[in-house]
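User: Show me a protein chain along with its predicted structure.
Assistant: Here is one chain, sequence first, then structure tokens.
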Amino acid sequence: MALLVNGETESGGDQFAYLFKQRGIGPLVGTRTKSAMSGVGGVRVPFIDGGLADLPNAGYYDQQGS
């Protein structure tokens, strides 16, 4: 098995790719992910056009603490 990733992979896709590699299931194929694994929620910023921005409120570390 192999996992296809690219620069658009983020959030849950980042975590899935990390765990896939850590568990030795197979190689990651493609380019580096966004590494945007963060928890979202709690703070929503409304825009005047009706859109919203969710601000991250948590980060994640690997087993080496980075």
